[in-house]
Amino acid sequence: MHLGKVIGTVVATRKDENLIGTKLMITQPLSMDLKPIGEPIIAVDTVGAGIGEVVLYVKGTASRIAARKMDSPIDCAIVGIVDDITIDN
Amino acid sequence: MHLGKVIGTVVATRKDENLIGTKLMITQPLSMDLKPIGEPIIAVDTVGAGIGEVVLYVKGTASRIAARKMDSPIDCAIVGIVDDITIDN
Amino acid sequence: MHLGKVIGTVVATRKDENLIGTKLMITQPLSMDLKPIGEPIIAVDTVGAGIGEVVLYVKGTASRIAARKMDSPIDCAIVGIVDDITIDN
Amino acid sequence: MHLGKVIGTVVATRKDENLIGTKLMITQPLSMDLKPIGEPIIAVDTVGAGIGEVVLYVKGTASRIAARKMDSPIDCAIVGIVDDITIDN
Amino acid sequence: MHLGKVIGTVVATRKDENLIGTKLMITQPLSMDLKPIGEPIIAVDTVGAGIGEVVLYVKGTASRIAARKMDSPIDCAIVGIVDDITIDN
């Protein structure tokens, strides 16, 4: 899993019909000290994540499992909202 | 999912027979402010995307789901045409 | 497989219900001489790994196999605790 | 899919028996203006590609689909020979 | 597939029980002229590869196919020992 922050949304009216009803969240990958790393990606929300929240997201088949839509063309999904990060280096 | 812009097409006459009839679109990955990032890839169009349009594309198994061709050797597909991107940093 | 070191934990109360009970470990990728390389990722522990231990982790479907939870949205898991690394260059 | 150029071959006598009979082609990834990008990879030929030809190749499960060998340990395959690339920036 | 050189081994006593009996080989990715590229990874040997040998390795599901262990948490495997590399640029 990866750490990210929800920073926006994408609207696509013409899309695969199995994507209808999904929420497409722009998610900024974060380091463990919550710094942005790399380019944002677009993840399907499956846990009610809101703008500004720090989340866990997954890629690939795991994202279709999260969405309970194995026949949807999803390759990234938000699966949790992070409460706490503890580093013991 | 990833954001991209359709910038061209590829023609391949000799190809896997399960690719016959697919439209192979050259897709430039974009940042959320629509700047090119990295090298273009070749995605199968599944939503009627045209040259110049900003699209959502997926990789891996999700692309065969989008194409409704699970027995086709596809690893990237366009699944939506983007109407609007909203960033709330 | 990849080499990593467990350096922390993540708590997410609101999450996919199939993730309930999993231990989310912050794992720092390591080179073979145990130097950090790249950004930490979040892996599900399946072998009782503790903070500070050097571990083997896997990505993708292999991680759901490791967790014995094929219906969980997991894309990274710890599958072994490393005792010894031998390099014969 | 990705664009590449076939630049050589690899011979491996001791190999997985499900790879027997496959042609292992060294494939240089190309940009859309046919410049080399990154390191060559080794792809299984499924369309009769020859040295010097510009090809489409795929990664992952798509490559086993292309090879019609779902039980072979293949993770990259050539699926088409490119006739024409059109860019409309 | 990728080219690599076996440069060492990893021992993990506490590990997923479906990994018992596997040989975990430290594999240095190589360019086609046999120069090291990037960080070594840990691949399961399926062809009797020895230290110092130049090998072909695969990632993802292909590695479980190679190991004939679809229920093992393997995401990288050695599938061939390279005899000859021919480049015709």
UniProtKB/TrEMBL annotation, chains A, B, C, D, E:
Protein name from the UniProt record: Ethanolamine utilization protein EutN
Keywords of the record: Bacterial microcompartment, Carboxysome
Top-level lineage group: Bacteria
GO cellular component: carboxysome
InterPro entries for the chain: EutN_CcmL, EutN_CcmL_sf
Main location: other
PANTHER family: BACTERIAL MICROCOMPARTMENT SHELL VERTEX PROTEIN EUTN, ETHANOLAMINE UTILIZATION PROTEIN EUTN
Pfam families in UniProt: EutN_CcmL (PF03319)
Database matches in SUPFAM superfamilies: EutN/CcmL-like
Compartmental location: Carboxysome
Keyword Magnesium: no
